[in-house]
Write a structure and sequence with these properties.
two-stranded antiparallel ribbon; 11 helices; five-stranded parallel sheet; globular; binds ligand PTJ; 7 strands; Rossmann fold; single chain
Amino acid sequence: MIPLDHPRYRSLQTREHLADCAREGIVSLEGLTAHGRGEAFDYLLGEKTTDSALCAERTAAALLRAARRPIFSVNGNTAALAAPLIAHLQEVSRLPVEVNLFHRTNERMQKITAHLESHGVQVLTGTAERLLPLSHDRAWCLRKGLYEADTVLVPLEDGNRATALRGMGKQVIAIDLNPLSRTAKAATLTIVDELTRALPHLIEAFSQLSLEECQDLVAHLDNRYFLYSALEEMKRRLDHGLD
Ligand code: PTJ
């Protein structure tokens, strides 16, 4: 039982929830370590959304709105951390959701799909095919989903899929607390923010942005600026962290 007055209450509660989800088979054991890496970077960011991350979130909404065939690719951690937010985003955006896993088993696919559906998410189903140019199981996807999508939202990515998707001509929007990751650098647009802080901003932007604002955000998209801004914030906090 985590005491409500513990200064790290939210973080400890999230860890407990992820551990429960790992015991249920939704999150992989490797996913727990991935979460720990994210927490470390979030500490360096001050565990808050920076101005540049907010701009990236608004730009992501603009890119998704302008896309012909957008898709939200969900893995175990993302489903465990954010199922209600994914449902809300889908409600305002009609964004199709596909489950795509690194540690893929039929059992995990079913459990994650059921978990998302229990929160009201409509999950794309069908016969997966080995369509992405990858040597691991993330290659398995739906032809009418990830394969034909022109814009892919991918939180907590593991590296080379973002590069493969870019190579297929797709726009990749990553949500990744590590601005130095391969994914962050390969993506068209990287949101350097914690997933459950980023999604509410995306939801809000979806409902609020005008067409002109969307066009303006997309026209000025500069991913290196977003990555440098995150690194600058981390450097600033490292320099003055003990002040
Ligand atoms: O569910 P599966 O089988 O598809 O496996 C998914 C994992 C998470 C195991 C897989 O994608 C993986 O290994 O990811 P990585 O390579 O550890 O990368 C995850 C990235 O997400 C890291 O750069 C973390 O810093 C970042 N991250 C972790 N938690 C969060 C996060 N970014 C935003 N919000 C978070 N909550």
